[in-house]
Amino acid sequence: MTAHRQRPTLKAARLTPRDILHTGSAGMRSRPLRVVLSALGIAIGIATMISVVGISASSKEKVLQELDKLGTNMLKITPGDDLLTGKKIPMAEDAVGRVARIDGVEHVGGTGLLEHSVRRSEKISEDITGGITVQAATEGLLTTLRGQLRTGTWLNKATGTYPAVVLGDVAADRLGISRPGQRVYIDGQYFTVLGILDDLPLSPEIARSALVGWGIGKSMLGFDGHPTTLYERSADAEVGKVHSLVARTVDPQTPRNVNVTDPSAGLQAKAATEGAFSNLLLGLGGVALLVGGVGVANTMIISVLERRYEIGLRRSIGATRGQIRGQFVTESLLLSGLGGVAGIVLGAAATGVYATSSGLPWVVPLWAVGGGFGATLVIGTVAGLYPAVRASRLSPTLALHAA
Amino acid sequence: MSGASPHPRVADSGPVAPAPVPDRAPAPVVELAGVTKEYPGGVAALRGVDLTIKAGELLAIVGPSGSGKSTLLHIVGTLDRPTAGSVAIAGHDVGRLSDRKLSALRAQHIGFVFQAFHLVPGISARDNVAEGLLYSGLSRAERHRRAARALERVGLGDRLKHRPHELSGGQKQRVAIARAVVGEPDLLLADEPTGALDTSSGKAVMQLIHDLNQEGATIAVITHDTEIAKMLPRQVRIRDGQVVQDSAAQGHVRTRIRGDAP
C-alpha cells in the first residue's frame, strides 16, 4: 500500500505471445458454433482455390511425368520441300551414319517409306491400306524411340534380311494381329510378324506402321535406301547444339532442305495448358474468400458489441487501447486462419479424391498452400482491424454499468 | 483537516517541502480538487468536488441515483477524465497521463469490484482472479500463484477450480473481490458490491471488505444504501454533483466548497 510513494514510472506491461493468444481465443472458446460458421466461408474459398490449383497441377504433373519418361532430347529429321518443285528432296543414303557422327548424339534410327500396303491376305484388295504404312527401319530405331515391345521381338541383323515384320500397336489392332507368328501380306509376299510395339506417344506415325528390315526392304520391296525420316537422341545438354548441326550434316549443300522438329514440343505445350488453371473457377474461389472475409468482419463486429462489458472490465484492470485492439485482431486472425487451414485440408482432400479417381498423381503446390494461408491472414487482419479499433475506442466506463 | 488541503504532502512533511514523505505518514491515495464533469448537452454530473482519501481508509460514497456518485467513481477510477479540476491517484496527476499510462496506473494502483461481478463465464475461479493480473507484467505461473493466495484470502481456498456458474452470488462477488485485490492495489473501488446479493451474502461481503481494510487496504464503497454506508467508518454524501456531507471533515465541507469554488 505504500508503493506509490516511491512514484514508480507508469509503464504499461507487455503481454507475452501466449497471453495474446489466450485473450485472442477467449471469445472463440466461448462460442464454438459461431467460430465454425464464420470460418466456413473462408474455408470454402480457400478449398476452391487449392483444389483448382491442385487439380491442374496434378494434370500437369501427369503430362510432365510422361514427358520425363519419353524424354525431351529427341529430334525428328525429315526431308524438306524443294523451293521450285515443291517435291520432297530425299536425304542422302548415308544420312543415318552422318547424324550418328555428330558430337553428343547417342542414338540414331531411320525409317524409309515404302509404297506398299499391308493386308491380312492376298484376297484383300491392295487399295484397302487401313491407313497403315510400310516402312523399312534400322535396328537402332527402337532404342532411339525408347520404344517397348508389347509382345515378340524387334528386328535384328538376321531377321532384318528375311520377310519378317514388326507392327506398331495401332497397325496391329487394325490388322487384327495380336501375337507374333501370324502372317501379313505385303507386295505379293507373306511376312511373319516378329513382334508388336507398345504405345509410342512421341511418334504416332511409327504406331501406324508395319516395319521391315532395311535389308529386306532393299532386296524385296524396292527400297532405294534413302531414309525418309531420321530419329536422333542426344544428351539433354547437347540438344541445342545437335539441333543446329543436324541440317548441315545431313545436307551440307542445302541445309534448308532438311526439317528438324522436336516431337516433345507438343507434349510440353500440353503440359503448359494443363497447368493453366481455370480462371473462372479461381475467380469463384476468390469471391467465396471475399464473402468469407465479410463474414469474419461481421462476426467480429457482433463480438465487439456483445463483449463491451468484457472490454470495459479489461480496460479497468489495466488493458491499454493497443492491447484491446491486439486482442480483437488476434481473434479475427485466428478465426480466418482456422478457416484457411480447414480450407487447405479440404482443398487438398478434394484434389486427392479427383486425382485418385482419374489416375493422376496427387500434387498440391506448396506455393498455393502458402499463398492461400497468407491470403487468409491478410483477410483476417483487414476484417478485424475496424472492429478492433472500435473496441479499443469504447469507453471503459461501460463495464461499470450493470449488465 | 489537512487531508482537504490541495497540497497535503507538502503540509505533512514540514518545512523541507520537496523532500520525500516520511515512510509512516498517511499519504493520500486520492486527491480530487475542484472536480467538475459536464456531459455534452450541458448536464453537469459533478460540480466542484473536493475529496481526499488517505491510505488505509474505508469510506462510503453514498447518494441517491442521479447524484453523480457513478461519475465520481469513474473519475476516481481514472476511467473518465474531469472537465475541470485536478485528480491525483497514488501521487500521479491523472490529467497529465496518456491513455497508455492511465492503463498502467489502473493495472498497478486500482482494483474494481462491480455490482454485476463481470466474471468470465466458463473459466475457473482461479483463472478469473488471475485475469486481474493479466496486464501487470507478471509471469503466468506467478499470476496463478497469487490468484490462489487471493482466493484463500477471501475464504474461497477450496473453490479454486469452480466455474462461476457453480458458485453462489456471494461467492461470485468474493471471487470478483479477490480479482480486485490480487494486484495489491492502493485503492479498491467497490461499486454497489452488495447490490445483486441477498442480505446474508451481502453481510458476508461487507465483512470481507472490513477484514481487507483491517489488513491495510484502502477501500471506497459506492452505494445508494445508507444502511451499508453507516457500517463504514467514513461517509461521503453526494447530492446533485456536490459533496454535501463528509463525516471526516464534519461541518467544514459546505463552507470550504463555497470558499474554494467561487
Automatic annotation (TrEMBL), chain A:
<dbReference type="Pfam" id="PF12704">
    <property type="entry name" value="MacB_PCD"/>
</dbReference>
<feature type="domain" description="MacB-like periplasmic core">
    <location>
        <begin position="36"/>
        <end position="201"/>
    </location>
</feature>
<dbReference type="InterPro" id="IPR003838">
    <property type="entry name" value="ABC3_permease_C"/>
</dbReference>
<keyword id="KW-0812">Transmembrane</keyword>
<dbReference type="InterPro" id="IPR050250">
    <property type="entry name" value="Macrolide_Exporter_MacB"/>
</dbReference>
<feature type="transmembrane region" description="Helical">
    <location>
        <begin position="35"/>
        <end position="57"/>
    </location>
</feature>
<keyword id="KW-0472">Membrane</keyword>
<dbReference type="Pfam" id="PF02687">
    <property type="entry name" value="FtsX"/>
</dbReference>
<dbReference type="InterPro" id="IPR025857">
    <property type="entry name" value="MacB_PCD"/>
</dbReference>
<keyword id="KW-1133">Transmembrane helix</keyword>
<feature type="transmembrane region" description="Helical">
    <location>
        <begin position="366"/>
        <end position="386"/>
    </location>
</feature>
<protein>
    <submittedName>
        <fullName>ABC transporter permease</fullName>
    </submittedName>
</protein>
<feature type="transmembrane region" description="Helical">
    <location>
        <begin position="280"/>
        <end position="305"/>
    </location>
</feature>
<feature type="transmembrane region" description="Helical">
    <location>
        <begin position="333"/>
        <end position="354"/>
    </location>
</feature>
<comment type="similarity">
    <text>Belongs to the ABC-4 integral membrane protein family.</text>
</comment>
<feature type="domain" description="ABC3 transporter permease C-terminal">
    <location>
        <begin position="285"/>
        <end position="396"/>
    </location>
</feature>
<keyword id="KW-1003">Cell membrane</keyword>
UniProtKB/TrEMBL annotation, chain B:
<feature type="region of interest" description="Disordered">
    <location>
        <begin position="1"/>
        <end position="23"/>
    </location>
</feature>
<protein>
    <submittedName>
        <fullName>ABC transporter ATP-binding protein</fullName>
    </submittedName>
</protein>
<dbReference type="InterPro" id="IPR003439">
    <property type="entry name" value="ABC_transporter-like_ATP-bd"/>
</dbReference>
<dbReference type="Pfam" id="PF00005">
    <property type="entry name" value="ABC_tran"/>
</dbReference>
<dbReference type="InterPro" id="IPR003593">
    <property type="entry name" value="AAA+_ATPase"/>
</dbReference>
<keyword id="KW-0067">ATP-binding</keyword>
<dbReference type="InterPro" id="IPR017911">
    <property type="entry name" value="MacB-like_ATP-bd"/>
</dbReference>
<keyword id="KW-0547">Nucleotide-binding</keyword>
<dbReference type="InterPro" id="IPR015854">
    <property type="entry name" value="ABC_transpr_LolD-like"/>
</dbReference>
<dbReference type="InterPro" id="IPR027417">
    <property type="entry name" value="P-loop_NTPase"/>
</dbReference>
<feature type="domain" description="ABC transporter">
    <location>
        <begin position="30"/>
        <end position="261"/>
    </location>
</feature>
<dbReference type="GO" id="GO:0005524">
    <property type="term" value="F:ATP binding"/>
</dbReference>
<dbReference type="InterPro" id="IPR017871">
    <property type="entry name" value="ABC_transporter-like_CS"/>
</dbReference>
<keyword id="KW-0813">Transport</keyword>
